[in-house]
Each structure stands twice: as C-alpha cells, then as structure tokens.
Write a structure and sequence with these properties.
Largest sheet of chain B: 7 strands, mixed
Shape of chain B: globular
Radius of gyration of chain B: 13 Å
Radius of gyration of chain A: 13 Å
Order of helices and strands of chain B: EEEEEEEEEEE
Distance between the termini of chain B: 37 Å
Number of strands of chain A: 12
Structural class of chain A: mainly beta
Largest interface: A-B, 25 and 24 residues
Helix content of chain B: under 10%
Number of helices of chain A: 0
Helix content of chain A: under 10%
Shape of chain A: globular
Oligomer: heterodimer
Structural class of chain B: mainly beta
Amino acid sequence: GNSVTQMEGPVTLSEEAFLTINCTYTATGYPSLFWYVQYPGEGLQLLLKATKADDKGSNKGFEATYRKETTSFHLEKGSVQVSDSAVYFCALSSNTNAGKSTFGDGTTLTVKP
Amino acid sequence: GAVVSQHPSWVICKSGTSVKIECRSLDFQATTMFWYRQFPKQSLMLMATSNEGSKATYEQGVEKDKFLINHASLTLSTLTVTSAHPEDSSFYICSATDRGNTEAFFGQGTRLTVV
C-alpha cells in the first residue's frame, strides 16, 4: 500500500534560517505529491504540489522537487519567518485512487525571532 | 481554485446525541468525497470514501453504524456521528475531488467536542 514518511519533528529554527523537511514515499503507480500546512486550530492549506517526476512545486518561498529515483519530495525554504510556524504534512494521491490522500505524520515547525 | 465548505466549524454536543457535519463543493461536482479524522498532534486518518449515489467505503476499524455517511448529490456529503461519546471528540475534515483528479480539495474542518 501507499505510505509517506516524514522526518521526525519538532523542528525549531531561528528567523531567516534555512529549512528542510524530508519526505519519502512508497506508492503504486505514479502518485501526485503534496505539501500541506496547518496552523493551530485550522484546517489544511495546500502549500505546493507536483504531479510528475522532476516537477518542482513552489509557493511563498517554499519549494519541493518530485524525485522519482529517490522517492522523495523534500520541502525547503531559504529563509524562514516567524509566521511560517505551523505543522507541515507531506501527502500523496495515487492515480489509481484519485483524490484519496495518504499523509505523513506531520512536522511541527517553530520559528523563533 | 476549487472550494470545499464544511459546516459547522465547531460543535459541542451532549453524550448520546447525534451530530451531522456537512461538506459541500461550491464550484465543482464532487464525484468522490473523503472523510478524515485528526486527533490532537496527530496526522489525518482516512475514515471513509464516498462516491455520489453509492454507499460509502469505510476503512478498517471505522464503525459504519456509528459514522453514517451520505453522498446524495454531486455537491454534498454528510457525516453523522451517532450516539456520540467523549472519545468521539476530534477534528473531522472532509475533502472532495472530481472525476480523475488526483488532487482533492479540503474543507476547513469541524471540531467536535462531546461532553
């Protein structure tokens, strides 16, 4: 079956530090990959996505590249802000069961001023 | 982008009562909707998948008689938590997709507290 493994958290960084949150996956077929962000007490917001190998998703300074050879989709940001503090979920949706999302455990990011 | 609206955002109910949560796709036809449950500081766990006009498919360990799902139209799915108990308190999130789209669009979630 499908699975997503995220680096264990929580992650604490100082403002303007570089961020990497690792994500690897196991899936049948050719999945689409997503990063979602969840702020306290709120629902999920799509941060970025990639639908095929070598695609790079980007949004708000965050980037992730779909690496089929390493089955990875690591999230990066060059300079984090306090407002980036949230929980980040890596997820996949396979083309064999469209829309059904498999999530990683989530990584809590805290950015200190 | 596609919008999914979930209602209510939060609800408090007494033990033994039933609660209905609605999930609506506002600007597309949702052929498939998904219901997830999220406990504090945990990830989202899929509860069930519903296709319009069909019975829902429940994940292993989810009681179908307790969590009633109805997907009667292409824009609305409902989750009814029957005879709620405090252990049912959780954050419930729906998502919806149209035919063949690997991306699902998420509602804002419903926080259920059973007292």
